[in-house]
Amino acid sequence: MGNIEKRKVLITGSLGQIGSELAGALCERYGGDNIVTTDIREDENGCLACAERFEKLDVLSIEDFNRVVSENDIDVIYHLAALLSAVAESSPQKAWQINMEGLFNALEVSRENGCSLFVPSSIGAFGPDTPLDDTPQDTIMRPHSMYGVTKVSGELLCDYYNLRFGVDTRGVRYPGIISNVTLPGGGTTDYSVEIFYRAILDGRYTCYLNPDTSLDMMYMPDAIKAAIDLMEIDPGVLRHRNAFNVTAMHFTPEMIAAEIRKFIPGFEITYENDPVRQAIADSWPNNMDDSAARDEWGWLPEYGIEEMTRDMLEVLGAKAEKGELKI
Ligand code: AKB
Q1: Residues 171 and 158: beta-carbon distance below 8 Å
Q2: What is the model's pLDDT at position 52?
Q3: What is the pLDDT, as a whole number, of residue 125?
Q4: Ligand 1: does its nearest atom lie under 6 Å from the Cβ of 179?
Q5: CA distance 272 to 69
Q6: What is the mean pLDDT of residues 91-110?
Q7: Does 247 sit in the ligand 1 pocket, CB within 6 Å?
Q8: Conformational region of residue 114, where left means phi above 0, alpha means psi within -120 to 50, and beta covers everything else
Q9: Which residue among 48, 194, 250, 291 sits deepest, i.e. has the most Cβ atoms within 10 Å of its Cβ?
Q10: Whose alpha carbon is nearest atom 8 of ligand 1?
């Protein structure tokens, strides 16, 4: 893939929760002139201004995708354009189209242009038959949600393109990601972000998952680090290229509420169950074993529940004081 400092990187879905922060981190690391951001929407608020170039791109158009990659001489693609679990469940046909056809195009474009390709999988790739505690790296994967079906299929397709065509595909199974910059859009784990906004703005939050639903989570700086570290490692050391379990913490709504109460003592949480998202969450791991990522490429998260909670409340609290916190 050539010199790391000189690599040219393209991100799809750059205005999404991960993309918007990954773009900033990559601009800092490789220089904005080496980063091309793309999204199906216009960057109306200039969120991606650090990058030299923004292109409006629908990943379902392979011609446009190919043109942007070849015109910009791209070495690495971070393919983040996808629907998350809850929206995918409400529009399963659309989810298949965006998540699978979009991925197929990303793989074909990578094959034709000799690009390395990062594709995020998810805890959503697991299903109700998977061992829920210390979920192993290699285990039963029979998800019941359309999101999960696209994630497992995506992992397999990425393996296939690597084995059959030698495309340098890599990826992680992300847990719920908590960030203080861009809100997530339509996932099952979104409560873990919303709860901080509501705690600061209203002092209370109504949660759509049961109080004891345990899920893996990660703070955004660790999620960004995982994506960059995995793409920078010598691929020769990787055995599980496309679907590394990675986690940083796991908690239930009850536990995160207790953590928030250490800073906002009057914070109240109530529960109004959403059966669709509850069923999805119940089929996902309580906590994953990420030792393969630790052993193969040195994965090590920096933020646990305490550090993440403190930082979230500090950053969002400062925004609230300036009247800039909206949900
Ligand atoms: C979702 O909830 O859909 C995502 C995920 C865990 O993949 N945050």
Answers
A1: yes
A2: 87
A3: 98
A4: no
A5: 45
A6: 98
A7: no
A8: left
A9: 48
A10: 176
Looking at ligand 1, which atom is closest to the CA of residue 123?
6
Ligand 1, atom 7, residue with closest C-alpha:
122
For a substitution probing ligand 1, which of 177, 276, 282 has the most ligand atoms within 8 Å of its CB?
177
Place of tokens 């709504």: 253
The amino acid present at 139, given as its one-letter code, is T
Q: Is residue 122 within 8 Å of 204, Cβ to Cβ?
A: no
Domain locations in the chain as residue ranges:
7-176+219-245, 177-217+249-286+303-321
Among 121, 144, 147, 179, name the best residue to mutate to test ligand 1's pocket (greatest count of ligand atoms within 8 A of Cβ). Answer: 147
Measured from the Cβ of residue 184, the count of other Cβ atoms closer than 10 Å reads: 21
pTM score of the predicted model: 0.97
Tokens of 327: 């949900």
Atom number, ligand 1, closest to the C-alpha of residue 122: 7
* Triad 157, 250, 233: Cα angle to 5°: 45
Query: Domain spanning 177-217+249-286+303-321 has what CATH number?
Result: 3.90.25.10
Residue 291 has pLDDT above 60, yes or no: yes
Considering the four listed CATH numbers 2.60.40.1930, 1.20.140.10, 3.40.50.720, 1.10.1280.10, the one that applies to the domain covering 7-176+219-245 is 3.40.50.720
Distance in Å, CA 1 to ligand 1 centroid: 30
Q: Give the type of residue at 119.
A: V
Phi and psi of 49, rounded to 5°?
-60, -20
For ligand 1, pick from 174, 179, 247 the residue to mutate: most ligand atoms within 8 Å of CB: 174
